[in-house]
Amino acid sequence: MQSEAHPDDLPGGLPPEARISIHAIRGRGAATFMPHRFMHDTRTAVDDGWDFPLEDAGQAVPPPTRVHLETARSALCANDSPDIFFDHSVNPYRGCEHGCVYCYARPTHSYLNLSPGLDFETQIIAKHNIAAVLRSELSRPGHVPRLLNIGSATDCYQPVERELRLTRGVIEVLRDARHPFSLLTKSSGVERDLDLLVPLAAQRLAAVYVTITTLDAQLARRMEPRAAAPHRRLRTIQTLAEAGVPVGVSVAPQIPFITEDMEQVLEAARDAGARSAFYTVLRLPWELDALFREWLALHYPQRAARVQDLHNLDNAQRGAGKTYDSDYTTRMKGSGLWADLLRQRFTGACRRLGLNRERVELDLDQFRPGLARGQGSLF
């Protein structure tokens, strides 16, 4: 889709004819290299009449994906936020080529001096030694097994995983140590590792959640340009369920007047074999607020103001442009009338479809740190 954003306030007082219009980029979620919050200087591209005509501004070659290897110093990331269901997470990658425009992890690229916009989906950091580091951490005498999730920040089965196989290495370490885990993905790539997941699931050591934001293929292509198509994710749920792997669906994030088919997603996922479900609402921390507004201006300008309906903001907050409340008690589910309606819709649909009737209980008691070190066990 090639459309233009025309904000009222032009940077630096530039006249409209001098500013280069922003265009959607095919295959990318972000449209610009959004400046990050640690930058001292920002620059605005303008048409000086020498490089190319204004009407050709949207024809630039899309930026390629580059993968950078990083030597990780740690693998386990502890979570102390009460609104998240797991205690530890492992993320083999920073950045994600799926390019989901709403991803709450985008601002983390700022710590790397990279843009939360296009850099997040084109400059991928791969922790090449993460399996070895994880094995060392699990082998420590003082390690206490807790609920662990793979891929909570960026997708652990994004395209580069086909070559680097870092996620598979992490699963092999967890298998060796008998450490239970869940993983979250939008990719059909998880099917590659069924040989590991099926026996672990039979021992109550693994569960998988597949995110399906919408069944609308056109909307998904705009929001999640390089993730698997919705119908392909449904087939992944079916494949996992038929193989005996506990599988749930994440209908996240919910976005006012953008994602409108939550009930249909839940029903399709149930029919495919999902037995549990959860949702969160759109979160817009740091630079993601401006980036998502940019995306709305390109694709759904008439609906941009409704994002503020996620949180019970007063008129003063709305007038100041605030769209997001980061309070952990409300950030995941929102607050106010729209959030209450969404909660009722989700609860009612799950009750009608028979979802969440049984909780998947992973077995933490099987963990053996000696097995992570390659030692035998008498128990």
Please tell me the total number of domains: 1
Structural class: alpha/beta
The CATH superfamily is identified as Aldolase class I
The name of the CATH architecture is Alpha-Beta Barrel
Poorly predicted regions are 1-19, 52-59
What's the pLDDT, averaged over the residues?
Answer: 86
What characteristic shape results from the CA principal axes? globular
Examine the coordinates and then state which fold CATH places here, giving the name of the CATH topology: TIM Barrel
Distance between the termini: 59 Å
| Beta-strand proportion | 5-15%
Helix content: 25-40%
How would a textbook summarize the main sheet?
7 strands, mixed
**Lateral arrangement of strands in the main beta sheet:** 4-5-8-9-10-11-12
SS field, number of helical segments: 12
CATH class: Alpha Beta
List the secondary-structure elements in sequence, H or E.
Answer: EEEEEEHEHEHHEHEHHEHEHHHH
Q: What is the radius of gyration?
A: 22 Å
Protein name: DNA repair photolyase
GO molecular function: iron-sulfur cluster binding; lyase activity; metal ion binding
InterPro entries: MJ0683-like (IPR040086), rSAM (IPR007197), rSAM_sf (IPR058240)
Pfam family, one: Radical_SAM
What would you say this structure looks like, in words?
The structure is a single chain. With 379 residues, this protein is of the alpha/beta class. The protein has one domain: Aldolase class I (TIM Barrel, Alpha-Beta Barrel). Helix content is 29%, strand content 11%. The protein has 12 helices and 12 strands. The strands form 3 sheets. It has a 7-stranded mixed β-sheet with strand order 4-5-8-9-10-11-12. Strand 11, helix 8 and strand 12 form a beta-alpha-beta unit. The N and C termini lie far apart (59 Å).
